[in-house]
């Protein structure tokens, strides 16, 4: 019997009606003779709601109780899903991350999965049950519940699929697959019928949003066949595997709600600063004037406070004299399939072509990505322009499903 892991995201479980619909899909797979392990996210927006509740009573952004609180969202979904399946006559059992045997490092709010003990799940599968696992959580060696960071249910699914040596891991979401760009911004963006792990990983790291990057890295490491597909449509989705190499460019991503952090200082230790910024999740940087002692970093608005306090605490040590911030920035990323392809096309990326606007900066973000940051108001136009030049004309070269 094949083992299939399916993950359902928040939108796919937004209402009890949708939970019942997803249950029908799971039964459909079960009826094909597959053993099913299902990972669920919290219903709809409920994790945000729980976060809001915690903010109303406390300024603490991470910690034991916050993890306990946030992990309840997934537990609600998994219990409801098991009940829905049982109601339809399908034997099912709901498990928390701990009950499913998911061990994580002891780090509240952003733990990594360290081990998965599959015995319990396998025992239930043997009995013919569908196993429903609460995503985004696990237990540390000291018995504490820790969450995997926002979007962590994807990682749960990839990790379970690897540990169970699953035949396939489906990420069931609210879009039909991996697009060449965000179709809400770029109307002629198209869906890949297949692509390779590395391209998807870079797309995910640069804000594609369709899957959590950690999940892709995990799937790649263990060679888990991954499918990104819709929970609602019959579209076949995007199949991800090792060497289905695509054209030289994989796609364009667009990120809003960003800020600029500008650092000034006569004797700034630029290298050190840049390294530290990279470690703390900065999107891109630019050495603005090599001799004028200015650095620019692009960060998410949500990460701004954290970045500033990190910089503040090292300010003297790093030689930073002044820090300025600017809001309402956006970034456009052109994702190459690898570094080599990016290097080959440097000539084409003639900055002038894309930089007639004021205040456009090319920034260093990722070895296989060409990135610019712009004022948010020009962001979507810029993204369309980049897409047109690099992607539209080349659509015939991609394995696209229309
Ligand atoms: N519910 C969590 C979140 O919204 C985890 C997940 O959905 O993957 O971030
Ligand atoms: Mg969610």
Question: Which characteristics define this entry?
Answer:
402 residues; alpha/beta; Carbamate kinase; eight-stranded mixed β-sheet; globular; binds aspartic acid
Write up what this structure looks like:
This protein has 402 residues and is α/β, with parallel strands linked by helices. It has two domains: 3-174, Acetylglutamate kinase-like (Carbamate kinase, 3-Layer(aba) Sandwich), CATH 3.40.1160.10; 250-401, VC0802-like (2-Layer Sandwich). The chain has helices spanning 16-31, 46-57, 64-87, 97-100, 119-126, 153-163, 197-205, 213-221, 270-279, 304-318, 339-344, 351-354, 376-390; strands spanning 3-8, 35-40, 92-95, 102-104, 113-116, 130-134, 137-139, 145-147, 168-173, 191-192, 194-196, 226-230, 238-241, 249-264, 284-289, 294-300, 322-336, 361-366, 369-375, 400-401. The protein starts with a strand and ends with a strand. Magnesium ion (MG) binds next to loops. Aspartic acid binds next to helix 6. One of its GO terms (biological process) is lysine biosynthetic process via diaminopimelate. Residues 3-230 form the Aspartate/glutamate/uridylate kinase domain. Belongs to the aspartokinase family.
The largest β sheet comes out as:
8 strands, mixed
Strand proportion, as a percent range, falls in 25-35%
Gross morphology: globular
CATH superfamily of the largest domain: Acetylglutamate kinase-like
Contiguous helical run count:
13
User: What bound compounds does this protein have?
Assistant: aspartic acid, magnesium ion
In the CATH hierarchy, the architecture of the largest domain is 3-Layer(aba) Sandwich
Number of domains: 2
End-to-end Cα distance, whole Å, is: 32 Å
| Rg estimate, integer Å | 22 Å
